[in-house]
Amino acid sequence: MKPSSPGKALVVGFDVPARIGMPLAEVVTPALLIDLDAFEHNVATLGQQLGLAGLRLRAHSKTHKSVDIARYQIDRGGACGICCQKLSEAEVMVAGGIDDVLISNQVVDPARIERLAMLALRARMLICVDDSDNVTNLSAAAVRQGASIECLVEIDCGAGRCGVGPGQAAVSLAQQIAASPGLKFAGLQAYQGKAQHIREYAARGQAITAAITQARTTVDDLAAAGLRCDIIAGAGTGSYHFEAASNLYNELQCGSYIFMDADYQRVLDQSGQPISEFENSLFLWTSIMSKTRPDMAICDAGLKVLSVDSGLPRVFARDDIEYVNCSDEHGTIADPHNRLKLNQKLKLVPGHCDPTCNLHDWYVGIRNDTVECLWPVSARGKAF
Question: Which CATH number fits the domain that encloses residue 81?
């Protein structure tokens, strides 16, 4: 992996939390770390699995929001392109040289539709749609810009979020897309987001099987109407084994597999054990900043550097201490055996990797306890 340097002029602790070659112990806290060995293992593992199955991976960049990581997933992990969740994310990725991007979401605001059409002049752009008026507006913008936008009809296959109903509603929308100048009907988006974190394997499989059934029915109805799906997309880190085995999906959209987080490691595999094929590679590096009680320590990692929507972080490789509470700038760690010392460093596994990454400017890539690279969180804050 080629290291990237922020430049000698930047001062550690002001613009960046680390320098290339710095020992891990000297990295300023709180900082977002990537264990490069674990990261590379995760990228290679999924890439090899899907390659052997003859499936495409369109890696979801909403997890990391990093051009450097997106490039690595394409160059080294077998990804055919990436997903973004917001137009501004996609603009950052295209500016960074990524030329095959699916916005796995709806873009309906007129100004943003115009931006999407302009972006489609610079890269292959795909978009999810679930509304007839949106199709009309996308077509008009594509014609104005002289662009081509590929559209996936999104169906609601159980998540209760975006998407038309499976079957005829999807067919009608696909027919409208196929007849609209400047647009191309590219296929089906059938992602069951709610199922990703269902803990029990059998219950998770039941939810995904229902989604696969709805997607298959829709694909058959589209075929009967003379419409072929080049892309049948969906799946995430918690469910991709099911979609991969469906003989239906051909493009999977996993994201969190590169990092894993505390919540995903509560999801169980077929043997009833936590998912273990992917390793924790993302950590929040934190320091003990106060130790006034024997049974408790305060670290410098609170809500401003960690998302707790999926639960509190886990202290990595320690079962004698526990992160138990947080406020804006502080985290409380139970230390019943009084083992922690002032300025001692710890690795925390975030509860939810995606929103945690969006709180940071930099990833600090670590190998053998040494800083090997620094990657900016290129699309941080790009939520519009």
Answer: 3.20.20.10
